[in-house]
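Problem: given the chain below (585 residues), write out its structure.
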Amino acid sequence: MAFDGITIAAVVKEMKETLTGGRIYKIAQPENDELLLTIKTSDGGQKRLLISAGASLPLIYLTEGNKPSPMTAPGFCMLLRKHLQNGRIIDISQPGLERIIHLHIEHLNEMGDLCRKRLIVEIMGKHSNIIFVNEEDMIIDSIKHISGLISSVREVLPGRTYFIPDTQEKHDPLTADFSAFESAITGRSMPLYKAIYSLYTGISPIMAHEICCLAKLDGDTSTAFLTSSPEGKQALHDLYQTFSQMMEQIKKGDFHPVIIYENGSPREFSPFPLVMYQEDQQKSVSSISNLLEQYYAEKNTVTRIRQKSVDLRKIVQTALERNIKKYDLQLRQMKDTEKKEQYRVYGELLNTYGYEVSPGAKSMEALNYYTNEMITIVLDPLLSPSENAKKYFDKYGKLKRTFEALSTLTAQVKEEIDHLESIQNALDIALLEEDLVQIKEELISCGYIRRKGGNKKIKFSSRPFHYISRDGYHIYVGKNNYQNDELTFKSANGNDWWFHAKGIPGSHVIVKSEGNELPDSTFEDAAKLAAYYSKARGQEKAEIDYTEKKNVKKPNGSKPGFVVYYTNYSMMIDSDISALTRVED
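Solution.
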């Protein structure tokens, strides 16, 4: 979900309750576009406020965590320390439902006079900024300087007057009455949800969909419907009623933050539960700050690991593309060897019926005693029947040798492709930097990366995923091929159960049976994990093979993670693991 005005309203409510009356104790600037304020609250406690104006992820929330600061504080940080150190927060406000927060601060200047200033946080995507202004709305400084060369709408520079640019001509949803709402919504033809978020400040598309859902209307319905019939006019009243109820809820500060999960991963967040999602998909969080910290921490983990694994992904992708091209070429060459048996038959028939061939003949009709059909054999008129037979046997021998060589090569290349795709899957499910260490080591051992610094022994700290089934059984999931082998052949006992997505790259999943007969729901839980941690993630259904671990074998000399099994069961299942609990070992 976008960091919209409704989320800002929830943040402002929490900050107002927590920070008003507090004194700014420390000011740090951990990143170029980020502030971390430590505030001594009026009740004697201490809170930290993280403010980020990053173009990709602007944020503001209360946090317990700390971040290291540079040895030399940037100029903006030094300016704030000069003016606001030990300043008291007297109010925190939000203009309308804008994505803007004003921190009103009073402090003593160098002469000992009481002054008031504002720290303005604008959460507006790539236009986000942190702006420091005086009582006359003159900009003292900002964390990002925006000149007229960058923006023709507003300059954000010291000495300029601060104002909120009205570029989209949106209405304030907190003050809308029915007449204004009707005029705005029905003024142009577009989908209902789009009309709501494009005409009113601070409402994101998902919240616009939620308003339509609460009013029992399809968000994609055209606004023209609202004036075309009595039913449409009633729908307009219902929509306004729902809209105004949500605005009243925001004004009262009635927020109950939730994170919405899909397939075990955070998909959306909201300051209050959303009826457009199922109840079991939504997890309540104690505060909006905890929600934002938790949600973006999980999102950031995925983003950070993606960035950290770029080099490894490139190596794997390059090797994979090269092997796929090689494999396709070999398959085409294999197809060319399909005529080899035909040439052998021609040679045999020429040896059998060659005495009937007239000298200089260009072809021969003969009965194929393998199929009992007449066939025509093309001859070289300059050669005798026996020489023509030898020519066909030579062609047969050459194609046979080619076929035998290609059969071995294609099997090897296909095994290499499967192995590389399994490494790709391991990169997709990696969550921590230590998970990448094992993957890199596998690429080194397989010759895709040259080892630097000699053959020093690598210590691995990454551990398999650990889940608890709905019936209380322990389930382990390998994050990469090394862990797959470790789980299957060292950790698992013979009567534990082994799961894997059929015919596609994926993790080995082990259920510790403890000698018990597993309930059906645990089989389903393990199968869901096998689907989720495979290339089948997100598909409606995936086929999962499962068997007792004692039936799984590893051929000598095979690639890491490669196994064979000949006795197994199968089931079709989805990859939704939201009902399962992951244990942090």
